[in-house]
Amino acid sequence: MNSTPIITDTHTHLYSEEFDQDRDEMIQRAIDAGVTRFFIPGIDAAATQSMYDLEQNYPDNVFLMMGLHPTYVKENYEEELQHVETELSKRKFYAVGEIGIDLYWDKTHLKEQQIAFRRQIQLAKRYKLPIVIHCREAFDEIFEILEEEKSEDLFGIFHCFSGTLLQAQQAISYKMKLGIGGVVTFKNGKIDQFLNQIDLKHIVLETDSPYLAPIPYRGKRNESSYLVNVISKLAAIYDVSEEEIAATTTQNSKDVFGI
User: Fold this and answer.
1) 40 contact partners, CB below 8 Å, separation of at least 6
2) Which among 215, 204, 189 is positioned nearest to 250, based on CA atoms?
3) What proportions of the chain, in percent to the nearest 5, are helix, strand and coil?
4) Does residue 109 sit in helix, strand or coil?
5) Rounded CA gap, 66 and 195, in Å?
6) Could you report the per-residue pLDDT of 40-91, keeping only the tens digit for each?
């Protein structure tokens, strides 16, 4: 890139133990590549302290969310939801996330996942925060709850969007941006085939690092600096410059997170 527009990673697990050996170097690589804004999802109570540590070390770059991830919804989910509620009441967060429903690994706790998703949506409305949705093999279940909870003050990001054009349009109708990352570079990712039918104003960038690394790193550990590979693919899909992709998606992230 010639000029240096700000690039925003709207979803990265910087606290992941996969970065324990080289976290600062990895973050520096991202900053050197122009990725200077990192939005960090909560997953469960055990992750909270390491999120606060990151924020303390990178106060200008790291922005925290608070939430209970659907695959962490277990027997003790009431206790975990209480933790989310307590933290939200104590300090500023930029979103309630990542929350949602995941039926890929295990359907045992579907009912509890639905309760947790709904309760956290209601918390987001109370605190006037966006939600960041995790959806895996659960579009119908997610849309059902969004349909019941939709309101003027419900908005956010459909993280790691990997659905159809119809599902993309439905997500957008609930005032959700689509979080686009490494999947858009995959041969079998499919979203690259219709994405140019979705206005760029509905798109935000994310890595979901350390997961879902883009081509040519597929299968390896993902990191935020690899967003430039996603930008390059999106520039080709939308037939605009990489600068425009970076600038527009960062503006979209500001519209969602308010910063």
Assistant:
1) 12, 13, 14, 15, 51, 54, 55, 62, 63, 64, 65
2) 204
3) 50, 15, 40
4) coil
5) 29
6) 999 999 999 999 999 999 999 999 999 999 999 999 999 999 999 999 999 9
